Q: What sequence folds into this?
């Protein structure tokens, strides 16, 4: 199973959804992790650090089309949903009650979407 993490495209977003220590833990569970080139640049993490932790560093289109799970912070641009692997999962904040077009696009492309803001806090 491959988890893909593309860079955020939202203006002024500096966060990265995963750091090398988390990549290392997932890789030890025999999960394949693919991160987009430059994913950690805004937080001072190089592509080399992700590679050393066990991730494959590759391009955005490759991540979107080949990952079983796509993980990101913010909702994707609607036009990217057609690039996702059919039957895959997308996990991020989605604002589903206000983003009907986004929800419809996921359904049309047979993508299961998990909206993080809809999961109750456990603390």
A:
């Amino acid at each position: 199973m491959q988890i893909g993490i593309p860079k955020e495209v939202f203006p002024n977003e500096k966060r990265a959804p995963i750091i090398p220590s988390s990549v290392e833990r997932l890789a030890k569970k025999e999960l394949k992790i693919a991160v987009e080139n430059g994913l950690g640049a805004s937080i001072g993490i190089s592509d080399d650090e992700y590679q050393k932790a066990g991730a494959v560093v590759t391009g955005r289109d490759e991540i979107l089309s080949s990952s079983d799970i796509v993980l990101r912070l913010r909702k994707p641009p609607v036009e990217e949903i057609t690039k996702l692997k059919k039957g895959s999962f997308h996990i991020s904040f989605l604002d589903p009650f206000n983003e009907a077009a986004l929800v419809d696009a996921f359904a049309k492309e047979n993508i299961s979407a998990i909206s993080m803001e809809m999961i109750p806090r456990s603390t």
The chain has a mean pLDDT of 96. The radius of gyration is 14 Å.
